[in-house]
Design a protein that fits this description.
Length: 516
């Protein structure tokens, strides 16, 4: 009986020694390369170097070692084809029955940061993906394994049944093609991101994501869901969060947390953001985190119940005590003091997450995408530096220094509210938020009603222009003293005239902030 041959060449050597030892004990011949061969040999496994199989040395600093007909012929040759077997015999090609390969650690290398292009290039695997794809293509005759977690499963099935079932081989092949597609998409996106025109939309676009965890369910209990992350995520992102306590995050928790965190990253002063159903329900900035948290709570003490709160400073004991009096699903911050952790430990169900905060990352412009039926929409992110010097004052009255500060605050919030979006704010605190209405005046009515008597002396931000003067007039009558909006309506003059009538200031930014 012909001895079965396994070609093992792995970057991730987890479990590979035991795997090779088990195969050897079952009579398999082990062929290997470079560092893998050295590791196996040191563990006492009898290894045949790839150069002995091919009769050709590894050259070009390891770039060329497995790209050889004696390797790929042994993998690709069909055992049920008399022609293939005849040609393999004519050319002295021995069959290879198992390929265990995982690839150069390109994702891990570039994730470290401060990597030169040359270093990144040298960590692009060529021979590995070629062997993986060859073996996966010929899965009926060749076992392909790319994940160390599968070693024990393969060994057990070989030991108990003498071979792998066709369905097992097929599933391993699917996993292998996914492995190489994922790997290549990381390389493609990384290299594309280095170009000066990194926001150029390519003719083809591949999205690599790796599963973090299965979730209990999706937005609704009858939906299944999982959480995947970018293999090279921003350090200051939900994907980089570290959970300190509490129940597992749900689909809705993660979705709401992302909305809260992305809004929080707009601010440099101590700030607290409360979110419910992906819309902010309360935002406050202050000289201290405790005061900011109080502002966020007092902005809407009803909606914050069961919400998500994010903060951009270390959470201290006093802030933790204040938040612990509220039912919250998630609290996320760059860090928590030991005293704050002790306070929250009494509320085991609240989920605490640490997320690194780097304001510099918020200036990067990447791509935002939305799934649609049968396709994908791509667009630039809305991340930007606010430049009030480019805004136009279109009324005779200019906003005061405090109003200007509040207008910028309100604009940062309105950008993260579902359109049609209106935000009324005063002294770095949201007072009323109108979100997702079919008419802009409808959103104004909600925001005005929520602001109540506190509206006197407040400012209003709109994510898009006012198509009619009604929204501006409603806010002005109730006490709003300054408005910021993109402008661009055919009826802009009516809105301006309304502001002049009530002696309020209006700024045009020239930029719309729809968020659907």
């Amino acid at each position: 009986m012909e001895v079965r041959k396994a070609l093992i060449s792995v970057s991730d050597k987890t479990g590979v020694v035991l795997f090779a030892q088990e195969l050897e004990a079952m009579g398999w011949e082990i062929v290997s390369t470079g560092g893998t061969a050295k590791t196996l040999r040191e563990a006492g496994v009898k290894v045949k170097d790839i150069s002995r199989l091919t009769g050709f040395p590894e050259i070009l600093e390891g770039r060329l070692k497995t790209l050889h007909p004696l390797v790929h012929g042994g993998i690709l040759g069909r055992r049920d084809s008399s022609l293939h077997l005849q040609q393999m015999q004519e050319h002295g090609i021995e069959t290879i029955d198992l390929v265990a390969v995982n690839l150069y650690p390109f994702p891990e290398v570039v994730a470290k940061g401060n990597v030169t292009l040359e270093e990144a290039i040298e960590n692009i695997d060529i021979g590995g993906p070629t062997m993986v794809r060859s073996a996966a293509k010929n899965y009926r005759d060749v076992i392909i394994v790319v994940e160390p977690a599968n070693y024990s499963i393969i060994v057990e099935e070989l030991r108990t049944q003498g071979d792998l079932s066709l369905s097992r081989r097929y599933n391993l092949a699917v996993e292998a093609f996914t492995h190489t597609a994922y790997y290549d998409s990381i390389i493609s996106n990384y290299l594309r991101g280095l170009r000066e025109d990194e926001t150029l939309f390519p003719s083809m676009f591949a999205l690599p994501f790796v599963k973090v965890q299965d979730l209990r369910y999706g937005e609704n209990p009858h939906q299944r869901a999982s959480f995947y992350r970018d293999p090279l995520p921003e350090k200051s992102s939900v994907a980089a969060a570290r959970q300190l306590q509490g129940k597992e995050l749900s689909f809705n928790n993660i979705n709401d947390l992302n909305a809260a965190w992305e809004l929080l990253r707009e601010f440099e002063d101590p700030t607290a953001v409360a979110v419910k159903h992906t819309n902010p329900c309360g935002v406050g900035s202050a000289d201290s985190l405790l005061d900011a948290c109080r502002k966020a709570h007092d902005a809407d003490p009803v909606s914050i119940f069961g919400g998500i709160v994010t903060l951009n400073r270390e959470v201290d004991r006093e802030t933790a005590l204040m938040m612990s009096k509220i039912f919250l699903e998630v609290v996320a911050a760059p860090s928590f003091s030991s005293e704050a952790l002790e306070v929250f430990s009494r509320k085991k169900d609240v989920r605490l997450l640490e997320i690194p905060l780097d304001s510099r990352e918020n200036q990067k412009t990447g791509l935002d995408f939305k799934k649609v039926s049968g396709g994908l929409l791509l667009q630039d992110d809305l991340k930007e530096v606010y430049n009030s010097g480019q805004w136009r004052n279109v009324t005779s009255r200019k906003p005061t220094e405090q109003e200007t500060k509040d207008l910028i605050f309100a604009l940062k919030v309105v950008k993260h509210v579902k359109s049609n979006a209106i935000v009324i704010a005063k002294r770095q605190q949201t007072l009323g938020i109108g979100a997702g209405q079919m008419s802009r005046v409808g959103s104004v009515k909600i925001a005005v009603n929520q602001a109540g008597e506190n509206i006197k002396g407040s400012v209003m931000a709109s994510d898009a222009f006012f198509p009619f003067k009604d929204g501006v007039e409603l806010a002005a009558v109730e006490g709003v003293t300054a408005v910021i909006q993109p402008g661009g309506s055919n009826r802009d003059e009516e809105a301006i005239e309304t502001c002049e009538k009530y002696h309020i200031a209006m700024l045009f930014t020239g930029k719309r902030y729809f968020k659907h």
